[in-house]
Amino acid sequence: MLLDEINLPDDLKKLNDRQLHELAREIRKFIIEKTGEYGGHLASNLGVVELTIGLYLSLDLPKDKIVWDVGHQAYTHKILSGRKDNFDGLRQYGGMSGFPKRSESPYDCFGTGHSSTSISAGLGIAQARDLLGEDYTVVSVIGDGALTGGLAYEGLNNASRMKKNFIIVLNDNDMSISRNVGGMSTYLSGIRSARGYNKLKEDIGGFLLSIPVIGKPLVRRIQRTKDSIKQLIIPGMLFENMGITYLGPVDGHDIQAVKRAILDAKRINHAVIVHVVTKKGKGYPPAERYPSKYHGVAPFNVKTGEPLKKKTEETYTDVFSDTLIELAKKNPKLVAVTAAMPEGTGLLKFSKLYPERFFDVGIAEQHAVTSAAGMASAGLRPVFAVYSSFLQRAYDQVVHDVCLQKLPVVFAIDRAGLVGSDGETHQGIFDYSFLTSIPNMTVMAPKNARELRDMLAFALKFPLPISIRYPRGTAYQELSSLEAPIELGKSELLYRGKDIALLAAGSMVSTAVHIREKAEPMGYDVTLVNARFIKPIDTEMLERLAETHHVIVTMEENVKQGGFGIQVSAYIHEHHPDVRVIMITLPDNYVEHGDVTRLRAALGIDSDSIMKKLYEEGIF
After folding, report:
1. What does the DSSP 8-state code read for residue 232?
2. Distance between CA 106 and CA 61 in Å, rounded?
3. β-bridge mates for residue 181, sequence order
4. Which among 298, 320, 321, 302 has a CA at the least distance from the CA of 310?
C-alpha cells in the first residue's frame, strides 16, 4: 500500500499523479475503517482528501502553516503528518484527539474545535510572521458553513488590509453539519453555478493567444480589466469588493487543480481566497447520500453504514424534542431557534411540524441569542436549543441582550457536563459557572426525563430568562414516583435521613442514589436532596439540612469555580460554620477526550470515587 510509505509530507512529493489518486483512495478507505471502529467525524473528512493532498504538495510543512477551521476535517492532515499509526486510539482516553491540537504535533499550528475561527487565527499568525521578519505561507481553511459565523467576517474585514500574502481556502460543500442556510450559502451557490465566467476566461484566452503579434498584449490588457469582467459575470463579487483577490471555483477533488491554485495564490502579495468546491462524504455512498447523518458517527458497520449499537433508550434530547412539540400545540407563540444543529438538538421534528415557527440561523450563536431576545421583546416565547459548549460563544448576548432587559428567553442547554470523545472544546462543564454569574438568569437542572418535561412547561410560563441544562445520552427514568411540583428556587427532598446529606444537581442525582445505596449496608441513613435550581439556590432547604446534619455533600458535573457547590459552601460557611461542606465537582481544568464512564472515574465523580473520597475525609 502506498499509505504505508507516507510518513511525512515530503514523501508525497515523490509520487506521480496516478499514485496520488491511488493514495487518495487508500486514505478514504483508512478513514472509513477507523471511524467505523472508533467513531468520529466521517463525512467532513471524506470530502477534503484531495484538497488536503493538494495543500501538502504546494506547501513546505511544518514551516508553512495550515489552520483548519473547526478541525473536524483534519484526519487526512493527521495521516499525512506522521500520525496514521495513532488512529487506533482516535478520540479514546489517552489517545489521539479528533481535532488539531498544538500539544500533539508541530504540524498542528493552532488548536481548533469551534467554528469560524481560522481566518482570525491565520491572520494573527501571518501578522506575527511579518512583524518578526519571517518568511512562510499561512493558509486558513474554512468551510462555507463556518462563514455564517460573525467571527469569520471580522477576520475577512481585517484580512483585506493585509499587504503581504495570506491565503484563505474556502471549502464549499454546501453543508455545515446540516444543510447551510442564509445569504452566504445562496451567494456561493450562485458562484458555483456561474461556470460561464470560467469558460469565458478559457475561450477568450485561447482565441486571443492564437492571434499573431497582438494576441499576448490583448490578453495582458484583459487580465488588467478582469475585475470588470467578474462584475459582469458574477454579480457582487463580495470578496473582490472587500479587497481580497478571489480565485475559483476550483474542483476540490482534482489534486493538481488544487495544487496549481495554491501556487498561484502564493504569488499574490495580499489576502486571497481560493474557492474550492467539494462533496461532503465523497467516496462512501451512505455518507454522500446522508452527509448530516454521517457528520459525526458512533462506531458503525462499514459494509452497511449502520451503527454497531442501536439506540433503544430514550435520550434527554428525545424528551426535549417531544415535549417541545406538545407544548407548541398549546402555545402558538412558542418558537424554536437553533444554530445549525436541528438534528443534534432534537428540533428536526419541530421544524417539519411548525416550519414557520422554526429558525435555523446557521453557525451564529450570537445572532441566535439576540434574535431570540428580539422575538421575546415582541411577544413570542423563543426556545434556543444549543449545546453547552457552543452557548459560551454568545455569553455577551446572554448578558446584555437577554438578561439586562429581563426578556423571557428559554435556553435549552443540551450536552451539558461531560460529553466524551470530542474532548476539551466540547465538554459542557462551564455553564453553571458563567450562567449563575448573570443577574436575572434562573438555572435549572432535571434529575430525570419527567422532570425535564416539567421544567420545560415551567420555563415557558416564567416571565424572565431561564436555562435548563441536561446531559447527553440516555435519560434517567427512576424516581419519577417521587416527583413534586416545581416551584421557583425550591429543591426536592427525595429521601430523609440524618447526619449526612447529599445535595445533588441534575445528572448527579442518579450517582447520589447509588452512593446512598452503598452507604446503607454500612449503617448510614443518608439524606438525598435533588437541587433542581442551581440559581437561585434553596436557602430554606439549606437551613433545614444544617439543623439536622453535620455534613453536606454537594454533587455537580461542572467545574468547581463558580459552580453550585461554591454557592452552597459560601452560604453554609456564613450561617452555619459548624456544618461541614464537601464539594464533589470537576477540576478547574479542561477535560480531554474519552469515554464518559472512564472520564467520570478518572475525574472522581462516579459513585465509587466519591465513596472513596468520603471515606478518606472520615465521613464513612
Report:
1. H
2. 9
3. none
4. 298
Q: With pLDDT > 90 as the criterion, what percentage of the chain qualifies?
A: 83
Question: Cβ(234)–Cβ(240) under 8 Å?
Answer: no
Which of 365, 451, 492, 557 is catalytic? The answer is 365
Question: Coil, strand or helix: which one is 140?
Answer: strand
C-alpha cell at 487: 416551584
Residues linked to residue 143 through DSSP beta bridges, in sequence order: 171
Known catalytic membership, residue 221: no
Element (H, E) at 271: strand 271-277
What distance in Å separates the CA atoms of residue 362 and residue 180, rounded to the nearest whole number? 7
User: What is the three-class DSSP state of 610?
Assistant: helix
If 0-12 CB within 10 Å is exposed, 13-18 middle and 19+ buried, where does residue 245 land?
middle
Cell numbers describing residue 348: 428536526
Residues in Cβ contact with 105 at an 8 Å cutoff, skipping those fewer than 6 apart: 78, 81, 82, 83
Checking DSSP bridges between strand 334-338 and strand 296-297, what pairing results, if any?
unpaired
Report the pLDDT averaged over residues 72-78.
95
pLDDT one-digit tens code per residue, 48-58: 999 999 999 99
> Distance (Å, rounded) from C-alpha 111 to C-alpha 145?
19
176 vs 69: CA distance, rounded Å: 11
- pLDDT in the model for residue 204: 56
Instruction: Say which DSSP state 81 is in.
Output: I
Is the preceding omega at residue 249 within 30 degrees of 0, hence cis?
Answer: yes
- pLDDT by residue (tens digit) across 166-214? 999 999 987 545 555 555 556 555 554 454 444 545 555 566 666 776 6
Is 14 catalytic? The answer is no
Active site residue 25: no
Residue type, 238: L
What is the pTM (predicted TM-score) of this model?
0.88
- Mean pLDDT confidence for 528-535: 98
Per DSSP, the three-state class of 148 is helix
Q: List the catalytic residue out of 84, 259, 280, 560.
A: 280
Q: What does the block give as the cell for 493?
A: 427532598
Name the active-site residue from 101, 230, 381, 393. 393
Instruction: Give 442's strand partners.
Output: 466
